[in-house]
Design brief:
With 120 residues, the protein is an all-alpha fold. The protein contains 6 helices and no strands. The chain has a single domain, classed as Four Helix Bundle (Hemerythrin (Met), subunit A). Helices cover 72% and strands 0% of the residues. It is elongated, with a radius of gyration of 15 Å. 24% of the residues are buried.
């Protein structure tokens, strides 16, 4: 079970019902975006605001497709705040980082606890 996926049935429907595909995409998400919060900080510190927005926008899109609603919501809030380059959106960055880490940790526990299983 993946409690961090909202509307799991809709996500599976988009993937043709494939649990294996879902697991692969979640694994890819975790590998691809595990360092996103640090990358975001680096981009902002170096004044690369457009690249920072692109990173958050990418996380937002992938998280929406995978039903990772908490990351999706924090990405929306952060993306909106990044439009104003005059201040650093610290609460939104913290939420973004926290949610990504929560999903990665949850996915890791799910993988560790799950019996090996293949689609039928």
């Amino acid at each position: 079970m993946r409690p961090f996926i909202e509307d799991r049935e809709a996500v599976l429907a988009r993937l043709g019902g494939s649990e294996t595909m879902l697991a692969r995409l979640l694994d890819k998400f975790c590998r691809s975006y595990s360092r996103a919060p640090e990358e975001l900080e680096t981009l902002l510190e170096s004044g690369q605001h457009e690249e920072a927005r692109r990173l958050v926008h990418s996380v937002k899109g992938v998280s929406a497709n995978l039903g990772l609603a908490s990351i999706y919501r924090s990405s929306i809030a952060l993306e909106n705040k990044l439009k104003d380059e005059s201040e650093r959106p610290l609460p939104e960055i913290h939420s973004f980082k926290t949610e990504i880490q929560r999903i990665i940790d949850g996915f890791s526990r799910t993988i560790d606890d799950a019996p090996s299983r293949q689609d039928q």
